[in-house]
Amino acid sequence: MTVSDGDSHVNGGTETTGSSILSLDGGDIHVCQDGPRDAPALLLIHGSASSSRSWSPMVPLLAGAHRVIRIDLLGHGRSAKPAEASYSVPDQARRAGEALDRLGVEHAVVVGHSSGGVVATALAEERPALVTALALVNTGPGLDAFIAPETAPPGLSQWPPTADQLRRFASTGFSRAGYRIPEELLDDVRRMTYHTFTTTMRATRSYLEQRALPDRLTVLGKPLLVIFGEDDRRWRSSSAFDYRVVPGARVELLPGLGHSPLLEDPPRTAAPLTAFTALHAARGAE
Fold first, then answer.
1. Residue 214 maps to which CATH number?
2. Per-residue model confidence as pLDDT tens digits over 187-215
3. Which own/partner pairs from 28-31 qualify as long-range (CB within 8 Å, at least 24 positions apart)?
4. Which domain holds residue 189?
5. Which of 31, 167, 171, 216 is deepest in the core (most CB within 10 A)?
6. What is the pTM of this model?
């Protein structure tokens, strides 16, 4: 069942704009759509402790030529946060695929930021016929690429975290310490429960421990674009080249940008992405 939250509307039968709630097994999933309904589908998946709002600056750059679909993964944003649900990466990917099914999408280019790229990879594993191509934005290929913080991360066992704790936690998501973190991103963390926050983080780590992403992607044989902010403070940007073992993979480093180039410089992030999707989304529609 699809339940509108009152924001969704369709203009002239072709333009889809707004958000809705999809009732899936395991919990309700919040979905946002923008762009022409009959355009090639582009699914955007956010990272840990974030939501579909992290993609908002990119949407105007993508929605002209795509049906842009954003979801809040279970436990995040405006989606449900049940304590008893599974937050494993394959289950998050399964729900993303079910959401596309409910929306009538048969093929999509899937883009993931940070741990959202891990979910995107799992979706391609689970539903290879659904995923036309993959684009990963600052998604570490394996745990050996992780940059351990110089100081211990702020304790977040007291929930919700204080504003200072949140800002320190979020600061490494950007290239420079003085970057003004959007308040809505901090609100996304506050919206989570301590259980969903810690469980989803552990789920990503577990998935990467089982097998590195380049190994998984090589087997899949999907077209792959990797975009990496060169000044990432969470994952070694040089690790982006680990993805070159995937046949035909394209790697784009963005100098001066950090872990969240989609927020720091949307136009520069969109440029290689739109070129990639123009090629592979068209092929998927054939």
1. 3.40.50.1820
2. 999 999 999 999 999 999 999 999 999 99
3. 28/3, 28/79, 28/80, 29/71, 29/72, 29/73, 29/74, 29/79, 29/80, 29/95, 29/99, 30/5, 30/71, 30/72, 30/77, 30/78, 30/79, 31/69, 31/70, 31/71, 31/72, 31/99, 31/103
4. 2-285
5. 31
6. 0.92
